[in-house]
Specification:
7 helices, 256 residues, Phosphorylase Kinase, domain 1, 31% strand, 15 strands, alpha+beta
Length: 256
């Protein structure tokens, strides 16, 4: 597979066309940002850690019936994915109160949210990603009512799977962001699932294990990412994770 013309550059990823119809290459760069880009840095190896963790999670989810855009890894920072028509929604699943939900509502930091709370934002940097309700989502014609129901069902399924997986490694999944897209009439999970898009706490110490370390100057960001990536993907020799590190010879065989 050949990487071709640049399609899109985001805050921390670049997306390229390929010579294979219906596929793209996502490059995870070493850039890191916070506060709507108000804080920016480039940290060596950051892209590789996020790419590896994302590939691991996507493979685990695929094995459990969740359709994702992930096809294979080309190298430690470049991922081959299905080309999707992305839906401009950020779907946030919250298991514990933290971050903006504590700032904006009378929740106590760390209090459990049962059942998990789904918050959906409109993905638009110029509007600072405002929160939407179901009526606004439908009025904007971003998805149909059945698609919205499907997206929420997938989000809760992903939450259950990742919460269980991370708990076994002594990590609490506090909250995380998902993005979705369409290929034809099928909705797939897209974007990434990494330390940049999740809030993770160590079960024993309560220590932050995600981008909050960078946001709030809590320590060595890359040391944290390295340790967390190793904890999450340490079982790479078996099951789903094996797919994340051993790329298939023909990515088309995995498309469905």
């Amino acid at each position: 597979m050949k990487q071709k013309k640049l399609l899109y550059t985001g805050k921390a990823k670049s997306v390229y066309h390929t010579d294979v119809k219906g596929t793209l290459i996502v490059e995870f760069r070493d850039d890191i940002t916070a506060f709507d880009g108000g804080k920016k840095d480039t940290l060596m190896n950051k892209g590789g850690y996020n790419a590896g963790v994302s590939a691991f999670f996507f493979s685990c989810l695929e094995e459990n019936g969740v359709k994702t855009h992930f096809l294979e890894m080309l190298d430690e920072k470049r991922m081959v994915v299905r080309e999707l028509s992305m839906i401009p929604l950020e779907v946030i699943v919250r298991n514990f109160a933290a971050g903006s939900i504590v700032r904006n509502y009378p929740f106590k930091e760390g209090s459990p949210l049962k059942p998990p709370v789904i918050v959906i934002d409109y993905k638009d940097d110029s509007r600072h990603d405002p929160m939407l309700n179901d009526d606004l989502i439908i009025a904007l014609r971003l998805v149909t009512p059945p698609e919205l129901k499907r997206i929420k069902t997938i989000a809760l399924r992903v939450n259950a799977l990742l919460s269980g997986l991370l708990a076994k490694e002594g990590i609490t999944l506090v909250d995380f962001k998902l993005e979705f897209g369409r290929q034809g009439k099928t909705i797939y999970l897209g974007d990434e699932i990494s330390m940049d898009s999740m809030r993770l706490w160590d079960k024993k110490t309560g220590e932050s294990l995600d981008k909050d370390v960078y946001r709030f100057n809590k320590g060595d960001v890359m040391a944290t990412y390295q340790v967390v990536a190793a904890r999450i993907t340490k079982k790479q020799k078996s099951g789903a994770a094996k797919k994340a590190v051993a790329a298939p010879k023909n990515s088309k065989k995995r498309a469905r």
